[in-house]
Amino acid sequence: MLVAVTIMLAPTVRVFFSQRAEIQSIQADIAAKQTDQTNLKTQITRWQDPAYIQQQARDRINMVMPGETSYWVFGDDGTSSSPSGASGASGTGSASSGVPWTQALWDAVRRAGTE
To answer: Please, which contacts does 61-64 make with residues 24 or more away whose CB atoms are closer than 8 Å?
Structure first.
């Protein structure tokens, strides 16, 4: 009798555990989607701020305000650093090499005079 009951209940127990695992995976998926939704709401809030839009326009597509001049500074290796506006600090590429900016400026003046 005990064997017969075990044989009859085995498929039911197996279905129960498989459905339990499926429920847990769906709950984890829901939690991940809620986290994504929270992040997207935060981004929407940021994009409603005019200062953030201005910053993104400057960083992503190199826009400048009327009256400002944009400069591109190229390093020794031929790569460009980020553009700088008239009011921003320009990256010369010498900070990464450890040379003070005054020495880099003087070297640039000497090179310009000899070339």
So the answer is: none
